[in-house]
Amino acid sequence: MKRYLIWFALCVSWLMIHGQASDNVSLVDKLLPAYGSACDIEIRGNLALISGTEHVLISYDTSNPANPEYLDSFYLSDATYADPTGAYGNLLIYGNYVYFYVSPSRVEVFDVSDTGSISHLITLNSFADLSNRYMMQESRLYAIQGSDVFTIWDLLNPLAPVQLGSYTFSNWVMDFAINGDYAYVSNHGGVAVGYQISVLNISNPASPALLGSYSGFCQRLAYHNGYLYSTSGADTGLMVWNATDPAILTLVNTIFFPLSVYEADLLIDNGILVVRSDYPVIEDKGLGTFLRYELSSPATPESLPLLQTDQAYHGCWALGNNLIFNCSSYYQIAVYGQLNSQTPVQLGRISGMITSRSAIQGQSLLLNSGSIIDTADLEAVPKFFHNCAYLCADEAYVYTIASSYLYRWVLDTEGNPSLSGAFMIMPVEYSFCAPLNIVGDYIYAGGYFIKKDLSEMVQNNVLGNPNKIVYYGNYAIAAGNGLKICDISSPTNPQLLGTLFNNTQISDIEIHGSTLIIALIDAGLTFYDLSDPLHPTMIVSKPNALGIRALEINGNYLFTAGSQGLKIYSLYNIASPVPTGYYNPFGPSMNDIQVMGNRAFVCEGRHLSIYDVSEAVCNPDIPELPVQKLQITSYPNPFGARATISLKGHNPATPCIISVYNLKGQLIRILLDDKLDSGLELVWDGKDVCGKQTSPGMYLIKAEQDGRSSLTRIVKLK
Predict the structure, then answer these.
(1) 3-state DSSP call for residue 242?
(2) CA 230, 235, 239 angle in degrees (round to 5)?
(3) pLDDT tens figures, 245-299
(4) Tens-digit pLDDT profile for residues 217-252
């Protein structure tokens, strides 16, 4: 018996390390691999390699730039926090080898020879300094070590690189360019000399020789076809140097930029020189700007039309295969082409932010990573938006928040997003951000009610800073550090009526009929009866259901997701929820979940995972579930100009009728005769079927569906 227990424990341990456990739930697909914030991107033909703050190297096939195809990824297991603006993740490509800079004493080497498949080969503890400027020419690697040492390395044996030589400058080095046996180095020569371009003869790499220096404040350098191009020290223009005699530089032209350039960088591809700039505009927001110059006449580059993007650049960029790859918002890399055309357009994006939050609008699944997935066609190319830390959606709009701004997006019939407005909640320097919830006609964010049309804002912090707000009639229940129960007859002036679980972290809540379901991260699931919202009574507690991050109700089933994976309960008997299925990947924590039909879309950080739950919600061992009671409510009540109507317990897949009657039973108006998505609300503006205002008094609101009906009374004021 003891031997059997040891064997069983070993099997369980092996599963926890190497596999997953499941019951009636199957993994269908994993989408959107996360690189976090992009640290670097390098292009080799149609292969794009991206490093990110998730300590990962990811490869994409960009042969179809409108839809870059994910190929493979390798996640480093022991890397610590990475700053995307720092040197961590700098990449170097040499043939089929990729060098990934982790720290001065650690460079990881990968092989990508197998069509983008990534194989880890070795860790180098002694290598060129990839924290500054560096470049390859044939098998030679040139790099700046520290701030002032120009180094030369031999990579003929890629797994055992050898330093051949170096040259130390008197002061700091900004950049360099290579032309065969010559290196042009932008450096500072000391107070008496100032900024200059120095020419090194590197034909003998063991002993580079200084040939001469030329005065000029040059930040960035690039060599092409006998000419050296540099950005001026003040980023005001492009300087052109004749280098047909490699040992001698002659300044032949200066082209002033047509706009103010900020922190310029430059690259050359396909005979086009590109200067990238972050061009500041109003309200501390910016536009990423690309200046392009055609180099067929190298001494007199021809200016091509500006390319301005919808976002200031953040982080890395690259040119390759006649395309521009530009990192915007750190976690989205936009692909533009064709580089040499008059008007390059955005062709596609590679989005790699950690997927942790989601929202649904129609068949569109919206993610905090900025991706929009068509749940009816998972093969379709994802759409993209940005400025998203938290998000929520109603029938008409998607709302996101980032850096003190609330953004409103509209999706067209094909799911394409467009920005329809923005509202500054606080000054940008505060970088205000909070979870978003819909409260009546307002979006609530951490003490601020912003009207959905973005016309006004009301401050009221009674609800605090909740993760989630749910509704029961005229009551709002806000979950965060405890639960707050509030009367929201006046949505922007909630009245606190009671609290539960004070100073206890609550990850999520849901309403099922008159039952409030609460996920306490460290104390499991708890079910409360809300028949009397002012005095909730506990129905049942499941203290062993730990680590739950998100809840979702679909029909009569409860879905939970968290550190213990995905678990599904039948709620046919609310006093005794019965598990019907689970899936535990033994690794990633599940952060959020949306259920549509027989599929569960789960945010797992490094991926969006899709699970088939059809068996778990059709378990033959579970008795037939009772039909849920319809429940119609309205608020405020009494009302003046308009009342919001909510319906619970209905089937979103079949039509329902919601009508207004007077006390004589006469039909005043039909508000809805169609399907009603779960969670959506209707508004009655007090008018009859002819569009005339009805008289003050009491009216009846009736809901009918599948032989069921629900009735509520409402009072209209003058």
Answers:
(1) strand
(2) 30
(3) 999 999 999 999 887 777 788 999 999 999 987 654 433 444 678 899 999 999 9
(4) 788 999 999 999 998 877 788 999 999 999 999 999
Q: Which region, left, alpha or beta, applies to residue 231 given φ > 0 means left and ψ of -120 to 50 means alpha?
A: beta
For 61-90, the pLDDT digits (tens) are 999 999 899 999 999 988 888 888 789 999
Beta-carbon neighbour count of residue 84 at 10 Å? 21
Cα-based distances in Å from 705 to 474, 628, 632, 648, 700: 23, 11, 12, 12, 17
Q: How far is CA 322 from CA 62, 262, 270, 325, 335, in A?
A: 11, 24, 6, 10, 11
Residue type, 676: L
Strands 631-635 and 448-451: unpaired
Structure tokens belonging to residue 316: 């890395």
Alpha-carbon distance of 27 to 25, in angstroms, equals: 7
Give the C-alpha separation, 144 to 174, whole Å. Answer: 9
Q: How far apart are CA 224 and CA 82, in angstroms?
A: 34
* Half-sphere exposure at residue 430, Cβ-oriented, CA atoms within 13 angstroms: 9
> Residue 476, by phi and psi: left (phi above 0), alpha (psi -120 to 50) or beta?
beta
Report angle CA 648, 652, 653 to the nearest 5 degrees. 150
pLDDT at 679: 63
Cα 509 from Cα 516, distance rounded (Å): 7
Can you give the pLDDT at residue 674? 86
Say which residue the tokens 């994802």 belong to.
382
Structure-block tokens of residue 131:
């924290």
Count of alpha carbons within 13 Å of 34, Cβ hemisphere only? 21
> 608: how many CB neighbours lie within 10 A of its CB?
25
Do residues 126 and 114 touch, judged by C-beta distance below 8 A? no
Q: Which residue has the tokens 């194989």?
A: 119
Nearest to 122 by CA among 95, 139, 102, 136: 102
Whether the CA torsion 72, 77, 79, 84 is positive or negative: it is positive
Q: What is the 3-state secondary structure (H, E, C) of 625-670?
A: CCCCCCEEEEECCCECCCEEEEEECCCCCCCEEEEEEECCCCEEEE
Helix (H, G, I), strand (E, B) or coil at 202: coil
Q: How far apart are CA 514 and CA 520, in angstroms?
A: 19
State whether residue 283 is helix, strand or coil: helix
Query: Residue 312: pLDDT band by 50, 70, 90 thresholds?
Result: low
pTM of the model: 0.75
| CA distances in angstroms from 676 to 274, 646, 663, listed in the order given | 52, 10, 26
Contacts with 311 (C-beta within 8 Å, 6 or more apart), sequence order: 286, 287, 288, 328, 329, 334, 386
16 membership: H or E segment, kind and range: helix 2-18
Residue written as tokens 């569960």? 600
Coil/strand/helix, residue 419: strand
Strands (E), 530-598: 537-542, 548-554, 557-562, 565-570, 578-584, 592-596
Helices and strands (H, E) in the chain, number of each type: 1, 62
Over the Cα atoms of the chain, what is R_g? 31
Task: Identify the structural domains of the chain with CATH numbers, from first to last.
Answer: 631-716 (2.60.40.3080)
Q: How far apart are CA 109 and CA 92, in angstroms?
A: 10
User: Is residue 43 within 8 Å of residue 320, measured between CB atoms?
Assistant: yes
Using pLDDT thresholds of 50, 70 and 90, give the confidence band for residue 118.
Answer: very high
Percent of residues, the chain, with pLDDT higher than 90: 62
Give the three-class secondary structure for 172: coil
Q: Name the H helices within 366-456.
A: none
